[in-house]
Amino acid sequence: MPSLVALATAVVAAALTFSPAQPPPGPLPPVPLDGPQKLSLAERTVPCRNSLRDADLINRRIANSRPGDETVFDGTCLVNKTIKLVGGRTYRGGSRTGTVIKQADGANLDAIFASDGYLDNTTTTGLPFALRTLTVDGNPENNPTAKDSIVIRSWQTQVEDIEINGSRRHGVRVTSLSQNGTRITNTQVNGRIASTQINDSGGSGLYVEDPGNSVTDWQFADNYVAGTGGYGVSLDNAAGVDGNYGLRANRIYGTGISDNYIEDFCTVGLIARVQGDAASTISNNRILKFNDGDGTFLRVEGNYGDGKVAVTGNAIRGNGGGVGLDYIKGNANSLEVVSAGNLVTEVAIPIQVGPGVVVSSGQFAALGGI
């Protein structure tokens, strides 16, 4: 069964329907060519008509916008071209049910929304933008070779209050690569993805793609991910913050992984690979398995150097099989784990410690302190 990773209560989305094309919309209000802009809400709004002209209408408005502008999407927008999100701007809908961005039949887009730097194949990360309060419908049944719903290649970017349904590949991909594979030469940091609901992705709900060391220090908070074909959340790089895994955090470095709910994974519920030179924490996660099968609930591996991590306050409950806590030195010189206060129940092996791993209950416990 697919994995589920959640930090929010599930909300059932209203059914999305496709209606016949409507008459083409009238011309958009002109955008001032000079002087400060003080556009009204009507002037900032793109009125979608569930028409194949919607994508051109949206992209034209964005292309004519200025730094600091807001673009508002209204209605059902039928898109057959990628919507290019230019940095330094805000994009939003009226509500999740009032604004639906739907991939048109046969469009097979590389991305429904994408950062300008991704599409322009720049060598540096794009400028920040915000995308909020709408629903994205990937329409996977009618787009068999489509890829991602939202592709972010911009720093300090905010994605909030978005519902993403039916991505053929990844729901959200945060990447240091451009569309043609160009790597950025700087960093892409300090973004936030929050209060999203990502359903039925063919790949991962969230995928952070970073073959180098550019995408760090992002937040993924208060999100609900369900029904994935691969990982619920897959992070090539997790600083500052294989099989069907609920949450994969590669290369954690001074990282905190906390307060996640992971249910009915296939292979591993949560896996974290620890870098040397820093220390990380894995705490207060709930990892449960109600379906059949074994698997490992929480696995920590060393990646290089002398890894150090505190694993505390996690609640693990199985159905009679599998490994609760699994600590492996991996490629590191050593791995030191403080493992304390974890509830591990109804599994075959509560804790498994590999060669070269030192496990303790922590300094205060050892000293008889608080």
TrEMBL record:
Organism from which the protein derives: Pseudonocardia humida
Full protein name: Right-handed parallel beta-helix repeat-containing protein
Entry keyword set: Signal
SMART domains (alphabetical): PbH1
Record's signal peptide: 1-21
